[in-house]
Model the fold of this input.
Amino acid sequence: MIIALAGGVGGARLAHGLARALPPGELTVVVNTGDDFVHLGLHICPDPDTVLYTLSELADPERGWGLKGETFNCMEALGRLGGETWFALGDRDLATHIERTRRLAAGEPLSAITADFAARLGIAHAIVPMSDDPIRTIVHTSEGILPFQDYFVRLHCAPEVKSLTFEGAEAASPSPGLCAVMKSQDLSGVIICPSNPFLSIDPILAVPGIRPWLQGRNVPCIAISPLIGGKAVKGPAAKIMAELKLDATPRAIAQHYQGLIDGLVIDEADTANAFGECLVTNTLMSDVADRERLAREALAYIERLRPA
Amino acid sequence: MIIALAGGVGGARLAHGLARALPPGELTVVVNTGDDFVHLGLHICPDPDTVLYTLSELADPERGWGLKGETFNCMEALGRLGGETWFALGDRDLATHIERTRRLAAGEPLSAITADFAARLGIAHAIVPMSDDPIRTIVHTSEGILPFQDYFVRLHCAPEVKSLTFEGAEAASPSPGLCAVMKSQDLSGVIICPSNPFLSIDPILAVPGIRPWLQGRNVPCIAISPLIGGKAVKGPAAKIMAELKLDATPRAIAQHYQGLIDGLVIDEADTANAFGECLVTNTLMSDVADRERLAREALAYIERLRPA
Done:
């Protein structure tokens, strides 16, 4: 059993590669829920949905978010009625939010709903939210304290990030599925996906019990750097690193995960800045074949790092 | 100023004719909200929406409900996730329900939201819900007591109707817009649209104050029979009349509205069964020209019935 910690698009793509490389049931994808928010009365879970859509091969391959062949007729009509349209929800995507909101209101935990959605979409591996308790990423910026989606979508990551906090994390518990796999005798490795370390992975590590468990684990843990040539493939990772006075290099990523990982997978473009225990390879995931190749290389790297 | 009492498709079509025949601001359409219900967490108002869509000329001309050119991608995706799809909500239509639900939750009254939607859709007349208080039509049938939409949509009106009650009506008040126009010195007539008397008009008459006001009014009131040749153009009016041991004739309609109307508009196909004060004409509204013609004939009939 492999655990993958994942956030948005990059994380979902590697998780998809792992899902293809591993036999059914041997992967648990633990997903960031710090980006979740209630909008238009709907409970929206951007990162879990990106993982659901990517692993079911329903995701839009270009945009990275949402469903392929999606329409936006509801949003267009909402605009005509004077509603808020800055967060674009596709017509098919809306079904996910409507049904999740209904089931949450009926008392079902987020992880049970997510597991059911995954099964209905034909996904053979476990997708578990980091927690069933509400945790909200708050971005402290040059323009004030912002809820995550205001920073990320409404303001297009323009404000300068000073720090991040995870509201509700202290009182939260890991989700039941995560608890089970953390204790599993079948666990053979942990992979931190090439997601934004600050926005996507840190919220997972903020859930009480997860960081100490990672520090004390007896199986290898590796991270895949989200940087290629000192830049993020997508998203604001490099911009945020600069704002936090960090170099956008493998060294900074390795230091960020210090004590949590045994090795770091970095891109060939960053060879000159390799730092510590590294696997250097092509980390760009342009297509499904790339995802699966990188996943197989990461799994082989874990095997090499396993204590004899 | 003319008041039109309206329910679903037939009522909306005559209201549309009246809207075209009258100068802007001289029509108030009072709409049944007894069909309203909460479904998938959304506050759905079928009759007010049919009136909004019909008067804005956005309604689907064939189906009678919903928007023209509508897509149902959300419903299809909802089915894939195991959600309830028996009540078909179009993608554009969903925007109405999402925005209304959000504004109701924020504390706005239904009538203010409806007025705003009407203005945004370019409607120059007032559309007012019969009440801002929740009133729910309950259908007592051979198969038990059913919420309206279970009877109407889920069971396709198949159960035999024994009686109807309007839950919440006793505690309800007419909406502020209706109260204002009931007291208006400019009121020149009332038209009961060719809506189902039992399902669409009776809930309006059940709101405290409306029936006594109609009984005591000093302007003419007419009804347009929803029957053509003893059958309803659409919907279960004739079926329900049979189940309630009423003949599907102008006499039964006139008796149903006894004390409330000064005259009844009936179709040429029912000439043989004309009863009391009647205007006989073609009441089928196949296109927009038909709606406007029937509206103008109804307005002229009101003038003829006005006391000298």
About this structure: Chain A touches chain B at residues 40-42, 67, 70-71, 73-78, 80-83, 91-96, 98-99, 101-102, 105, 116-117, 120-121 (CB under 8 Å). DSSP finds twelve helices and 14 strands in chain A.
